[in-house]
Amino acid sequence: MTVTNSGSAETRSRTIQKSVKKSCKNVCSVKSVKSLVPITTWLPKYNITLLIQDIIAGITVGLTAIPQGIAYAIVAGLPPEYGLYSGLMGGFVYLFFGSCKDITIGPTAILAAMTAKYVSGYSYDYAVFVAFLSGWVVLAMGVMNLGFLVEFISIPVISGFTTAAALQIASAQLISLFGMKGASGNYFSESMINFFKSITTFNIRDSILGVVTILILMALKRIGEGCSRTDGVVKQLRWLLSLARNAVVVIIGIIIAYILKVTTGEEPLRIIGEIGSGLPTIQPPPFSTVVGNETQNFTDMLQTIGAGSIILPLVSILELIAIAKAFAGGVEVNATQEMIALGLCNIIGSFALSMPVTGSFTRTALNNASGVQTPAGGIFTGILILLALSLLTSTFYYIPRASLAGLIITAMFYMIDYKIFARLWRTSKKELIYLIATICVCLLLGLEYGIIAGVVLDALVLLFTSARPSLDVNTISSAKGNVIVIRLPECLPYCAADHLRRKILKVSFKAKSDTLIVMDGVILRKMDTTVASNLMSVIKDVEKTNIKILFLNFHVSIKEMCNVINPKYRNKFVTSGSSIEDIVEVTVKVTV
Amino acid sequence: MTVTNSGSAETRSRTIQKSVKKSCKNVCSVKSVKSLVPITTWLPKYNITLLIQDIIAGITVGLTAIPQGIAYAIVAGLPPEYGLYSGLMGGFVYLFFGSCKDITIGPTAILAAMTAKYVSGYSYDYAVFVAFLSGWVVLAMGVMNLGFLVEFISIPVISGFTTAAALQIASAQLISLFGMKGASGNYFSESMINFFKSITTFNIRDSILGVVTILILMALKRIGEGCSRTDGVVKQLRWLLSLARNAVVVIIGIIIAYILKVTTGEEPLRIIGEIGSGLPTIQPPPFSTVVGNETQNFTDMLQTIGAGSIILPLVSILELIAIAKAFAGGVEVNATQEMIALGLCNIIGSFALSMPVTGSFTRTALNNASGVQTPAGGIFTGILILLALSLLTSTFYYIPRASLAGLIITAMFYMIDYKIFARLWRTSKKELIYLIATICVCLLLGLEYGIIAGVVLDALVLLFTSARPSLDVNTISSAKGNVIVIRLPECLPYCAADHLRRKILKVSFKAKSDTLIVMDGVILRKMDTTVASNLMSVIKDVEKTNIKILFLNFHVSIKEMCNVINPKYRNKFVTSGSSIEDIVEVTVKVTV
Question: Which residues cross the membrane (chains A, B) (predicted)?
Answer without folding.
Answer: 55-79, 91-114, 126-149, 155-178, 199-219, 239-260, 305-327, 339-357, 378-398, 404-421, 433-464
